[in-house]
Amino acid sequence: MTESSTDLASRTPRSSGVQSVARAAALLGAVVDSPSGGATLTELSKLTGLNVSTVHRLLGTLCAEGLLCRSREGDRFQPGPVLLRLGRRSLASTGLPEVTAVLKELADATGETASIGMRRGDRVLVLVSVQSEQPLRYLGEPGVSVPLTRTAMGVALLAFDTPSPPQRTPGERRGGDEQAGPDPTEDAEDAEDAEKWSWHVRLLAAQFRGYAVLDGADGSGLRGLAAPVDSGSPYIQLAVDIQGPAGRMTDDRLDALGARVVAAADSLRGLPVALALGQL
What we know:
Helix content is 46%, strand content 16%. The protein is α+β, with helices and mostly antiparallel strands. The chain has two domains: 3-91, Arc Repressor Mutant, subunit A; 95-278, GAF domain (Beta-Lactamase, 2-Layer Sandwich), CATH 3.30.450. A six-stranded antiparallel sheet has the order 5-4-3-8-7-6, sandwiched between helices. A hairpin with a 6-residue loop joins strand 6 (212-215) and strand 7. The longest helix has 24 residues, at 186-209. It starts with a helix and ends with a helix. InterPro entries: GAF-like_dom_sf, HTH_MetabolicPath_Reg, Tscrpt_reg_IclR_C, Tscrpt_reg_IclR_N, WH-like_DNA-bd_sf, WH_DNA-bd_sf. Keywords: DNA-binding, Transcription, Transcription regulation.
């Protein structure tokens, strides 16, 4: 039983008209959420907690209005043409079809898998991917959450959103006491300084180029290029990237590939995708 359908059906309405609407909405939700290509009268009664006679009456009205229809066999109720049309228009208003089209164009133009991701804390959630048609390719993993520092999208978001790390000369001791004796933590601090400096340079390079480049640190041989997307919302940060074998995405191709990625990110600017993607 879907919680939303049950809650909706069991609400205490103010009038019989509101009650009918709530019950009809519960039935529509149960049909849409059914994993088996529709639901029978008995199943819908159980799912919504409504008696069979009430469900039968409401189903008749919903079918007459085109919101639901019967399966070819006649024993199951499925989304009707009006409900499907509403769904298509709702999807179109989010900009999601445009996102897929932009990623497909980017994948075709570069020959590499194109993805869009959203920042969540210190990680990036991959939302949509369009695979390359190359035999050797990055497969793309929508739904996977990756640390910001392990993906080109994360580097792009950091470079264009977060202030650069504070600069400190490698080897400079904390506290500024250059005359102090040997510090047992000096090696660890120097290693930390070197890492910070490396990231500082990487973020500056991304800002200079207009896109971020990151090679896989796990020996995968992958290389990623990414650019941030102006989502129109300060609370939802998006980025577009392409990923593929480093041997194909060679240094001499970076500017051309990066220009394609930046153009794809720019083309998504202003589309109403932020809210839709933010709900995934």
